[in-house]
Amino acid sequence: MSLTRRTRFTAAIMSAGIAGLVASALVVPSASAADGDPHLPSIPRRPSVSTAPTDQFIVKYKSSGRSSSALRAQSFNRAAAKLGATGQDLRATVNGARVVRTSKELGQDDAEKLLASLRADPAVAYAEPDVKLQAKAADPNDPFFPWQWNLSAETGGIKATRAWDVTQGAGQVVAVIDTGKTDHVDLNANMLPGYDMIADDSDARDGDGRDPDATDEGDWSTAGQCSSGSFEMASSWHGTHVAGIIAAVANNAEGVAGIAPKARILPVRVLGPCGGQLSDIADAIIWASGGAVDGVPANPNPARVINLSLGGSTDPENPACPRTFQDAIDAATARGSVVVAAAGNEMADASTSSPANCDNVIAVAASGRTGALAPYSNFGSAVDITAPGGDMRPTSVIDPDSGVPNGILSTLNDGD
Ligand SMILES: [Ca+2]
Ligand SMILES: [Ca+2]
Ligand SMILES: [Ca+2]
Ligand SMILES: [Ca+2]
To answer: How do beta strands 310-313 and 338-342 pair?
Structure first.
């Protein structure tokens, strides 16, 4: 069984002219490692209102009433007492309102009762919770971020900017089991060494079998090389594209932002020209999760998440998950890794496609710009979630409303 990469956009059905045009627009050029600053900048923050429980309120009394502190205290204490609390006057605000505190924190319901009591007092001009403001991530400064509808759009996007208020992936390792890594200014700071797991040196293009250098040597193929009648293909740099979707450095004024821009990528090379072997991919899953593989040094950076944007249809008579795959996946999940796989791009039931149809795998179908299933995506009950995969068919390359390409913008290499 040979498994092939799964591009997140339908590059294969683009016409050559459109492909050239779009490719030049989508490529984020690679640069030398010396250009990359390994210090990761932080995403700037903007304030926003929290609805968390509070014990602090702002009450403005009308100037005609409650002018004395004793009368104000009486008013607030009466309202607080209804909720089993006492009140304390802290200070005045710049416009003469009072900042007051209850002796206990009030949940939203009790806070609303307190405010209702206060507002019912004819001497009160207004009363509102003195809410805590929390830092929220603002949009990063990456020049192509406005084109990353998959991260930010209200419709069709995953709203990553809101998730960044909770986490940007710091401290997490995501294994990208794919074509390997390339030198890229928007990836280098997040890239771990990884491993080259292609055992067969005849197709590896680096002159040896398994080795510690996970560099993508290119998966270009000549006409007829992969199967009888197969077309000549340029290198996909698919591992670079997938790595950037996951963890391109954000807010570095360069290229794009990744979904988890502070996570680190563990690149494991398994795909060469015409695809990769099941046996190599299974070993890569085990090694990435921290398991032992004969002849390969231990992985010092076990992956919390293992990404498999690859797959293949097994024997059509028996499209079950191969035992080799299932054992590797079970071993990885037993070690605490989460295994994520593409559902596939064959417009077929995902249950015919491995590893999407294996147990203990999160199988991900592709959605387009509207959030609906992308026309090329696999489907069916084997799919666990759907995520933006974009749509680069010639008729829908550019969204007519926004003028933004409908594909998934990510890091790439411009070599052949
Ligand atoms: Ca090698
Ligand atoms: Ca190598
Ligand atoms: Ca960037
Ligand atoms: Ca599943």
So the answer is: unpaired
